[in-house]
Design brief:
The chain has a four-stranded antiparallel beta sheet with strand order 1-2-3-4, covered by helices on one side. The chain has one domain (6-69). By secondary structure, it is α+β, with helices and mostly antiparallel strands. α1 (6-15) crosses α2. It has helices at 6-15, 61-69, and strands at 19-24, 29-34, 40-46, 49-52.
């Protein structure tokens, strides 16, 4: 059986209802995610930073799950010179 990718695991965590957004505003999104070992990890998205309390390096499945359920609205005049992120 192939190993589950971080993207697949993030999608599974969302599908299983294990991600709860606790706060969302124009500056940040904060969430709690119940991991496979039943440990609750806290994670967040901010304009120039993403973070998670899990021990993984880089973008973990918890952050991927959070990214799957959030979006950053575009300014009314379009994405501008920085493009769509």
């Amino acid at each position: 059986m192939p190993r589950e990718t971080a993207f697949d695991k993030g999608r599974r965590l969302v599908a299983e209802g294990r991600l709860r957004v606790r706060r969302a505003d124009e500056r940040q999104v904060l969430a709690e995610v119940v991991g496979d070992s039943a440990v609750v990890h806290r994670c967040g998205l901010e304009p120039n930073r993403e973070w998670c309390t899990c021990p993984a390096k880089g973008t973990c499945s918890h952050l991927i799950g959070l990214q799957l359920v959030t979006f950053r609205p575009l300014p009314l005049d379009g994405p501008g010179k920085e493009g769509i992120r």
